[in-house]
Amino acid sequence: MSNREETAVFAGGCFWCMVQPFDEKPGIISVRSGYTGGHVPNPTYEQVCSHTTGHTEAVKIVFNPAVISYAELVQIYWHQTDPTDAMGQFQDRGDNYRPVIFVNGPEQRKIAEESKRKLEKSGEFNQPIVTSIEDIAPFYEAEEYHQEFYKKDSARYEMEENQGRNQFKKKHWEK
C-alpha cells in the first residue's frame, strides 16, 4: 500500500455538514473545514459570512489514493450537495455556500469533469448541473471551533443536517 497523500477540496454548503461523510471513510487522513476561492488572505468566519471576501466554505481532504480514489471522493461529494443550486445549498444561502469542486491539476480536472458529465446524462435531475469545477485556490483553515463540528456539537449538527440536506438526499440519491 502506498503512503502517498493527495488533497481534494470541495465546497457544498455549510462545511459543518461536509466533514462527516468523508471523515469516516477508509483512506481519509484528515478533513479540515475552511475557506477558499476568495481574494482576502486569512479570512475569518465573520468576514466570509459578510459576502465581501469571495470565499466559499469548503473542506480540504487529505487522502491515501491507494485506499480511496479521487473518483470515489467525487462520488461522495455529489451525494452531499444539490448540484442544481448555484447560490447555496439547502437552507444555506449565498455565494459563500456555492457548490464547487476545486481541482488540483489536470488529472483531478479530468475525473471531476467526466463525473459531472455522467451525472448530467443520468437524468437524475430535471435541472442543469451547475456545480463549477475550478482550479484549486489558497485554502485557509476555519477557526478551531468549526473543525469536526459533527463530533463537538452532535445535536446541532443533526439539526443542520436534517433541515434540508437529508430530505434532498432521500429524494435524489436513496432510491
UniProtKB/TrEMBL annotation:
It is an enzyme of class 1 (oxidoreductase). The active site is at C14. Its EC number is 1.8.4.11. It catalyses: [thioredoxin]-disulfide + L-methionine + H2O = L-methionine (S)-S-oxide + [thioredoxin]-dithiol; L-methionyl-[protein] + [thioredoxin]-disulfide + H2O = L-methionyl-(S)-S-oxide-[protein] + [thioredoxin]-dithiol. It comes from the Bacteria. The keyword Transmembrane does not apply. Keywords: Oxidoreductase. Residues 7-158 form the Peptide methionine sulphoxide reductase MsrA domain. Pfam families: PMSR. Belongs to the MsrA Met sulfoxide reductase family. NCBIfam families: msrA (TIGR00401). PANTHER family: PEPTIDE METHIONINE SULFOXIDE REDUCTASE, PEPTIDE METHIONINE SULFOXIDE REDUCTASE MSRA 2. This is Peptide methionine sulfoxide reductase MsrA. It comes from Ligilactobacillus ubinensis. The lineage of its organism: Bacteria, Bacillati, Bacillota, Bacilli, Lactobacillales. The gene is msrA.
